[in-house]
Write a structure and sequence with these properties.
- This protein has 380 residues and is of the alpha/beta class.
- The protein has 2 domains: 265 residues, 3-Layer(aba) Sandwich (Carbamate kinase); 94 residues, PUA domain (Archaeosine Trna-guanine Transglycosylase, Chain: A, domain 4), CATH 2.30.130.10.
- Helix content is 37%, strand content 19%.
- It has 14 helices and 17 strands.
- The strands form 4 sheets. Strands 5-6-4-1-7-11-12-10 form an 8-stranded mixed beta sheet, with helices on both faces. A 5-stranded mixed beta sheet has the order 14-13-15-16-17, with helices on both faces.
- Strand 2 and strand 3 form a beta hairpin.
- Helix 3 packs across helix 4 and helix 7 runs parallel beside helix 9.
- The chain binds glutamic acid (GLU).
- Glutamic acid binds next to helix 3 and strand 6.
Length: 380
């Protein structure tokens, strides 16, 4: 499997991405002086999003703003909020935030869906698989998911706390190929440009060295929680998933168009595609929980890049859950592949050797058509 990616002209990196996750910071949405939504900015941003959709791109929005909107509604004073105040503000603000996106995008004929996440949702295997399936399904239906952290249930010890890393996490979950962090700064500098006039702008990063991490300072924006450090951490998550990430100044009208016109911004470029990164991860870093022995016909199908169907499975060994890594063996016990299995071991025992069309009558519910989907399968 080649991990070399074609070199894409900087101006086309965004427009050629298939699946894009865009993070919008609170300071872009809300005018702190007027204490109101920045309507003109929003309208122009939505025009950008619609343009992406029109050229066939799938778009996910990760938007902050629930706490900033909610504290305004609840008239909380301008000081750091206590946990219960933050949670109340998020509850009041999130419903308004979702409404803003729903209204603005409905005017352009787009449907939005809201998803609120916590770190546990994205790390725990079953919920991770469900979120991934829901997001993929929404995208295939042409819907724009609008995501935020579920700030009403998180606490300082169990939250992302910043939507930069949440956006990168979502991107790797759904194998997006580009994350856009619309920020209050145009990108990465060698030092804080507000303090050091000799600070150099870094337009492109290919490897996240300790030097790059050292360049990151703290956010000086009064609204958002993320600073440059969280953006670099987001970049690390994205690059590990084979996904490009760009940090760009969001405070311009048409912020996405500006990136396409090669504005000053920092691109973090991965050295492989999301699919290759995922397969490397499946092939190398997992501890298989079981094994599926398959017949010759299934071996041939796998070698042609197809999925593994239950009909080709001859033996199921080990105890595993849906989504666990298993090895795939030939009848001669050679390890052919590793993959993430779509059924648990008890279900796999029941449906092995059967055609996909029979799965529902055997298990009593409709599961996946494939025992291991080809996207979840790495040949060895
Ligand atoms: N989830 C928080 C909110 O909606 C924002 C986190 C961030 O600023 O990155 O207010």
């Amino acid at each position: 499997m080649s991990s070399i990616l074609p070199i894409v002209d900087a101006a086309k990196r965004l427009s050629s991405a298939r699946r894009v996750v865009i993070k919008i910071g609170s300071a872009l949405l809300i005018d702190s002086k007027r204490n109101a939504i920045r309507e003109e900015w929003m309208e122009c941003f939505i025009a950008d999003v619609v343009e992406c959709k029109k050229r066939g791109q799938e778009v996910v929005l990760v938007s902050s703003g629930s706490v900033a909107l909610g504290r305004r509604v609840l008239r909380f004073p301008a000081r750091p909020l206590r946990l219960e105040e933050t949670q109340a503000a998020a509850a009041c603000g999130q419903i308004r935030l979702a409404h803003i996106y729903q209204e603005a995008l409905a005017k352009k004929g787009q449907i939005v869906a809201q998803i609120l996440l916590t770190p546990a949702d994205t790390e725990e295997r079953q919920s991770y698989l469900n979120i991934r399936a829901t997001l993929r399904n929404l995208l295939s239906l042409g819907i724009i998911p609008v995501i935020n952290e579920n700030d009403t249930v998180t606490t300082p010890t169990n939250r992302y706390g910043d939507n930069d890393r949440l956006a990168a996490r979502v991107a790797t979950m759904i194998e997006a190929d580009c994350v856009v962090l619309l920020s209050d700064i145009d990108g990465l500098y060698s030092a804080d440009p507000g303090i050091d006039p000799a600070a150099r702008f870094i337009p492109e990063v290919h490897a996240l060295t300790s030097e790059i991490f050292d360049m990151a300072g703290d956010s000086r924006s009064g609204f958002g929680r993320g600073g440059m450090r969280t953006k670099i951490e987001a970049a690390r998550m994205a690059l590990n998933g084979g996904c490009a990430l760009v940090i760009s100044h969001g405070d311009v009208l048409r912020p996405l168009k500006q990136i396409e016109q090669n504005c000053r911004c920092t691109w973090f470029i991965p050295d492989c595609s999301p699919a290759a990164a995922r397969k490397t991860w499946i092939a190398g870093s997992l501890n298989p929980r079981g094994a599926l022995t398959i017949d010759e016909g299934a071996c041939q199908a796998l070698k042609k890049g197809r999925s593994l169907l239950s009909v080709g499975v001859k033996k199921v060994e080990g105890e595993f859950n849906r989504g666990d890594a298993v090895t795939v063996l030939s009848l001669k016990d050679e390890e052919l592949a590793r993959g993430l299995v779509a059924y648990n071991s008890a279900e796999a025992q029941k449906i092995m050797g059967c055609r996909s069309g029979k799965i529902e009558s055997i298990l009593g519910y409709t599961g996946r058509e494939e025992m291991i989907h080809r996207d979840d399968l790495a040949m060895l």
